[in-house]
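[job 4417] fold queue: 2 targets
>>> target A
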Amino acid sequence: MREKADAKKRARFMRKEGYSYTEISQKLHIAKSSVSLWCRDVVISQEAKERLFQLSLAGRKKGRETWADMRRAQKKEFLDLLAIETKRDIGKLTKRDRFIAGLMLYSGEGDKTQERIGMSNTNPKILEFMMNWWEEFLGLDRTRFYAHLYLHVGLSEPRAKEFWAKALRIKK
């Protein structure tokens, strides 16, 4: 019984110091409901209230980040599964399939205002497909392909050039 009285006394002291119910419960190894019962009438300072408010904000931020990480993982898992199922359902593309796909991609993403062949896209797989398409159907030489980069402020141009040169197998 003496231990319970000591725990109650320590809990009330910690609460006055600005500890949250959760912190008190964890440090003293007692149920949060007991902490709540023992400390409900404890008046805490404005400074302690501010500390608790900041803890609350940090906890909410951590919760949002955890939720976002979980959703990202679920989305990745879904998209990976979708890609596997799609590849299985579609199978290998015929030459005719590739030709039609290239025409559709170019009609949507291709450069139609200049007297050159070009495409704007941020997906390396799409650009790789089109480069292969230009080689296969138009007989163009990949060694003559080049890229223009339009980067947002703060992005590293050398790193971007390295990435795209490697992804598309072209010179920097």
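>>> target B
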Amino acid sequence: MTFNEESLLGFANELADEASKITLKHFRSTIHFEDKVDQSPVTQADRDVEELLRAMIKKKYPSHGIIGEEYGSENEKAEFVWTLDPIDGTVSFINGVPLFTTLVGVIKQGLPFLGVIDQPVLKDRWSGSDKRIIYKSNVAKTRPCEGVELASLYTTAHEIFDQSESIKFKNLENKVRSSRVGGTDCYHYGMLASGWIDIVCEKLSVYEYSAIVPIVKGAGGLITNWNGQIISGFDYKTIIAVGDPTIHNQALDLLS
């Protein structure tokens, strides 16, 4: 069977639509949660979303693999592997902050291929491939930045970095014009794709970065690990995304 980009992307948007029905039903209600082994919280909404999306994928594309935050991996050696983060930013979701997102990605032959970042409360959605990203029916584009010293930098939390990484990140943080830590989770990659911020620097899992890589690249940005290598595989890794590719090497030098 042939799987074309248009049909896969259309289905990815369907998955995001279905996820939003569940997250909006629970948002700003009484939400019970528990801590996972890594001490991050999980809600019933996280589980319900992932269960539904997995069932939809298996029905539509039974030969495809799936990797999700809550229920692990299945058939990850398949040519196409779907990745699911049902609620990225669960703390924001629990606290009623409308900056959580649902992330849907497709990996093709080990490389991120398609992605969707969806924030249902604000009705913000970025979707597409490394060729083009659509945001609210318009083509999303990153903005130019003449140097790191003029850039705005975002990250999720200092605590995600180990001691060595923290020192490197601080080198970059001290150089930029402004920095923001916490509160936006993967929503800030959509912000970067729309040209509102310039750099995002952090550590991500495959169910996060596989959706994000196409969004950043398709909007005109550049995203690599901290060694400047393309994003591939399935492991947890450091990430740097820049809206203007001309500042990428300068940012990498500060992280070296």
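[job 4417] complete. Note on B: The mean pLDDT is 96.
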